[in-house]
Amino acid sequence: MHCPFCRNHDTKVVDSRVSDDGLSIRRRRQCPNCGRRFSTTETASLNVIKRNGVLEPFSREKVVSGVRKACQGRPVTDTDLAMLAQRVEETIRATGASQVEANDIGLAILPPLRELDEVAYLRFASVYQGFDSLDDFEAAIALLRVENGAARKAQPAEPAN
Question: Does the global pTM surpass 0.85?
Answer without folding.
Answer: no
